[in-house]
């Protein structure tokens, strides 16, 4: 069953992408039922110039054998045992390191997104980083959104909701260094046309229509690259759920 944040403050990626490590196992002792603690993790591979990625936690492979294809993102969280892990994204074809995050802490019942994307410039250079998905203060009367620019070909963009400028000058992976950009903004629920333009211009990069509902949380992100037919530049709207 899929649950939304307004029911248990959660978020989303296809479960086939992440192998469960220790999962939410239940054990029964006498008449009491104990649920082992877990952390929730999702994945985004927007390193579209680099390719399919495998993910390792403390050198243990945690993604399915075929890896995470470029342009693929989770639609549901997987679970891991809470703890501190060294995270590595490794190219599935040649075992080259795409990006690493040393000493990442995953706390009990917290939600995280692991992201790998290419650096601006159109080459294969990439970086990886972790986002804490904090749903503790989202609005239950409005809808909630945040925006990530994960496209290397458009290093600075503006974001519009129904022709209203809501984010300006968002640079590629700027939320990796400015953690306030990982928080959710509250707006009235409804149907929105999300448009991304080159910063300071009327040149449209990509657009999408999306229904954004009361009490829910959405991650909107720009991904893809201009040289690919299989992973074109596009806006993705990911509803938080698990």
Structural summary, described in words:
This protein is an all-beta fold and 242 residues long. The chain has one domain (5-239). Helices cover 2% and strands 49% of the residues. The strands form five sheets. Strands 3, 6, 7, 10 and 11 form a five-stranded mixed sheet that branches. A four-stranded antiparallel sheet has the order 5-4-8-9, with no helix packed on it. A hairpin with a 2-residue loop joins β4 (53-57) and β5 (60-61).
Short description:
The protein is mainly β. The protein is built from one helix and 19 strands.
Features of the shown structure:
242 residues; mainly beta; 49% strand; globular
Topology, please?
Layout: H1 5-8, E1 26-29, E2 32-35, E3 39-46, E4 53-57, E5 60-61, E6 72-73, E7 78-80, E8 83-91, E9 97-106, E10 111-118, E11 126-133, E12 143-149, E13 156-161, E14 164-171, E15 185-187, E16 190-198, E17 204-212, E18 217-223, E19 234-239
Parallel strand pairs: 3-10, 12-18
Antiparallel strand pairs: 1-2, 3-6, 3-7, 4-5, 4-8, 8-9, 10-11, 12-15, 13-14, 13-16, 16-17, 18-19
